[in-house]
Design goal:
The chain contains 27 helices and 26 strands. It is α/β, with parallel strands linked by helices and 787 residues long.
Length: 787
């Protein structure tokens, strides 16, 4: 058994309605369902969805106060005033800076940029920076990707005579900031039809308004910021990203091209995943560790040599960021599992002195995936006692509103329903944790704390073709509100499952259906599952489909997102190689080894003192064992003990090693003729000195000492003979007795049958036996042997 990481939510659709959509869109029923879930149900919507070049972006003057902003900026340009673009340190922020600054300079403006230091100033506008700007001669300051909630700072700007235009997309307060103009897609007086632009999208709309036409050559930057900020990839954002990817493939920004080369990304084949996994993390990295200026400089430069130099600096920062994230994640996991897994911690708020506030958002994301609850991770400054960090949430918990309800504890905060940043006194961290957890208890149901995996449909393996996947790819670019389709495959078997990758942390396998259809699959970061999937397992798998190209061959491939096995599994580790592989496994300390012999337990603990070994020799030793992995390490004298353990332990996985003391070589049983021959010799040479005749018996009849000793013990047990001082004398036996009347003889028969059954039954026979025991019905091996 393997439990899924997520709760699978398979989408359902009304077949009649979907048939109508299929007819309207002139596509197959499965594709109609996919389009309908993305609110594409008419031919016009489909055309816009698939063909962005046929449609223009919305009029930027539908924004409230756009006319005021354009008028003030043009006035500043004509008057030769100094303009400062005030940005943010993430990928959305630096692309916003670049888009607007390139536009302003193209119009002849005296313009520069300023990005606050994450560690010294925090997110968004601050009075000191505004004062410094004014004193240095700035006449007009334009915020990008920030400013909407900085009411006090905007009031300060008014006091010092600094004109400010705010462009932002973050959650706004009820009151708009005092500024020359506020450009926001959710402005209460706005008529703009699409509310979900990224910060760079808003900056691009301002650039459009200033130029009188779209600066489409900048759309690669708009695509990067939009994908990086995880905003809704629908409507205008979808058009921006589709068009931007084309620019990225054909005529990318010089700095982006240099960075992509270091990341081994082929821009000619760029997709939203190229941005999300290769470009955006690197642009984010530099601002997570220090000043973000190099990222903006990279995107602004026209010098190829400077671009290479800056790209190398940023790439090194990304490598350092990865190391720091790994370290903090490990420390955070240990902290949570030790102190915060009890009730009362529905929202995890953790912090530590020395944690880098710049990367804790990434850590928070990883912890949300792990624990399926809102998480805030904070870095604490030991000198100032200030905690700065980031939070990530689950769908049912609006993080920004929750923070707003606790604003008396916060020095600063901002963000979205699913992500936010904040600053507070370290002394208030505990109060914030308690308040947020209390709010979660009051507003969330238990099912809200289970991560949901939305599955488009359960389909057979044989329906997956290269052509089918090509149709799916028409839905790209994928992202928020247009997720990459996830399909489920039920009851398949896995073939050729193995670990891959330099550190063997990934899984490669093939899904095989009963029909014989097969499909390659990979599971990134799922290498530990290889040892947990048995040959007989029926597996349910969910994942994303893609086309794998190798040696001019194009084949369907599944990227496994989750899998589950709903039944117990048997693992045959009777061979030495399989047993040694199990003992070398990285997870042996999570398994319970059942030993029936003293020597087995001692030997195992000598190899690894951390192993959990339970020794069972009689039924009184049986205790209730709860473990996912139960391993039978040696051969019991009484198989009934083994069967009792199986029937009373609900293990997910059972491993059979059952090594015998004789090295898995079944001891031979003397025949009835051998018994008769030995009795005849004893009768002929009465009394019979055993020691001096032992070698003669062995040589004459080719018997081993063990066989001779066993036959004599049977004779003694049946009272056919006695031994005293090494001399055997036959008794006068009146009644006839059979060999089977001897307990010693029966024990040997039983033992041989047991070893034969456990050591030499094939996998299917063992599986059927344990399956019966697990279901507590059918004959046990013990009953079969006794018969």
């Amino acid at each position: 058994m393997i439990h899924s990481k997520y709760k699978w939510q398979v989408e359902t659709a009304d077949e009649t309605a979907m048939q109508q959509v299929a007819e309207e869109l002139k596509c197959t029923l499965p594709m109609a369902e996919l389009f309908a879930r993305r609110k594409v149900t008419t031919a016009g919507q489909l055309d816009k969805f698939l063909n962005p070049d046929k449609y223009e972006a919305y009029d930027p003057f539908l924004f409230a106060e756009m006319d005021k902003a354009v008028a003030r900026i043009k006035q500043a340009i004509e008057a030769g005033e100094n303009i400062l673009v005030y940005g943010d340190y993430d990928a959305d922020g630096v692309t916003s800076v670049t888009v607007l600054l390139k536009t302003l300079r193209n119009l002849g403006a005296n313009a520069d940029f300023y990005i606050p230091n994450r560690f010294l100033e925090g997110y968004g506008p601050n009075s000191a920076a505004f004062t410094q700007a004014k004193e240095s001669g700035v006449d007009l300051l334009i915020t990008v990707d920030n400013g909407i909630s900085a009411l006090d700072v905007m009031a300060h700007a008014k006091e010092i005579g600094l004109d400010v235009i705010v462009t932002d997309h973050h959650e706004a307060k009820e009151t708009m900031p005092e500024a020359v103009a506020v450009i926001h897609p959710r402005h209460p007086e706005s008529n703009y039809p699409f509310p979900d632009l990224a910060g760079v999208g808003v900056a691009y709309k301002l650039a459009h308004a200033l130029l009188g036409e779209e600066p489409t050559e900048l759309l690669d930057l708009v695509a990067i910021g939009t994908v990086a900020d995880l905003v809704s990839l629908t409507d205008e954002n979808r058009l921006f990203v589709q068009k931007g990817l084309r620019v990225l493939r054909e005529n990318a920004n010089i700095g982006v091209a240099a960075l992509a080369k270091l990341a081994s990304a082929k821009l000619s084949e760029a997709t939203e995943e190229t941005i999300g996994f290769m470009i955006a993390p690197r642009l984010n990295a530099v601002g997570r560790l220090g000043p973000a200026d190099p990222a903006a400089d990279l995107l602004l430069t026209d010098d190829p040599e400077e671009a290479v130099f800056l790209a190398e600096e940023i790439d090194e920062a990304n490598k350092e960021r990865q190391t720091i994230v790994t370290q903090i994640t490990e420390e955070a996991l240990a902290m949570i599992e030790a102190d915060f897994m009890d009730e009362g911690n529905e929202v995890l708020v953790i912090g530590k002195v020395g944690w880098n506030p710049g990367v804790v958002g990434i850590v928070a994301s990883k912890l949300v995936d792990r624990f399926a609850r809102p998480v805030i991770v904070l870095g604490i400054d030991e000198v100032t006692g200030i905690a700065k960090g980031s939070g990530r949430s689950i769908e049912a918990f609006h993080l920004y509103k929750a923070l707003d309800a606790n604003k008396e504890l916060l020095k600063a905060f901002g963000g979205h329903p699913m992500a936010a940043g904040m600053t507070l006194d370290a002394a208030d961290v505990e109060a914030l944790r308690k308040n947020l957890s209390q709010l979660a208890r009051e507003t969330l149901a238990p099912e809200d704390f289970v991560s949901i995996l939305r599955v488009e449909e359960t389909i057979p393996v044989e329906t997956v073709t290269v052509e089918f996947i090509a149709q799916l790819n028409k839905l790209a670019p994928f992202g928020t509100d247009n997720p990459k389709p996830i399909f489920a495959f039920e009851g398949v078997r896995l073939a050729g499952t193995k670990r891959i990758g330099a550190d063997k942390t990934h899984l490669k396998t093939a899904l095989t259906a009963d029909s014989g259809a097969s499909m390659d699959a990979v599971g990134f970061g799922s290498g530990e599952l290889v040892e947990k999937i048995s040959p007989m397992a029926r597996v349910d798998v969910a994942g994303e489909l893609s086309i794998n190209e190798w040696n001019n061959m194009r084949k369907p491939q599944l990227r496994i997102v989750d899998l589950q096995i709903g039944h117990w599994q048997l693992f045959d580790v009777r061979s030495r190689s399989e047993w040694e592989k199990l003992l070398e496994s990285r997870t042996t300390t999570d398994k319970v080894f059942v030993c029936f012999k003293d020597g087995t337990k001692e030997k195992l603990l000598a190899q690894n003192e951390n192993l959990i070994c339970t020794q069972i020799q009689t039924e009184t030793d049986l205790v209730e064992t709860t473990t996912k992995d139960l391993i039978f390490a040696d051969m019991p004298d009484d198989v009934g003990l083994l069967e009792a353990i199986v029937m009373n332990t609900e293990a997910d996985r059972i491993y059979l090693h059952v090594a015998a003391e004789n090295g898995n070589a079944i001891a031979s049983m003397p025949s009835r003729q051998h018994f008769a021959q030995l009795y005849a010799v004893l009768k002929k040479h009465q009394p019979f000195p055993l020691a001096q005749n032992m070698s003669r018996l062995s040589k004459q009849f080719s018997w081993t000492n063990d066989q001779i000793d066993f036959m004599l013990q049977v004779f003694f047990d049946l009272n056919f003979a006695t031994i005293e001082d090494g001399v055997i004398r036959l008794n006068d036996v009146k009644e006839k007795r059979n060999l089977e009347d001897s307990e010693i003889y029966k024990a040997r028969v039983y033992r041989i049958a047991l070893e034969q059954k456990l050591l030499y039954s094939n996998y299917n026979e063992l599986y059927e036996w344990i399956e019966k025991l697990m279901n507590s019905k059918g004959n046990s091996i013990l009953e079969e042997i006794v018969k």
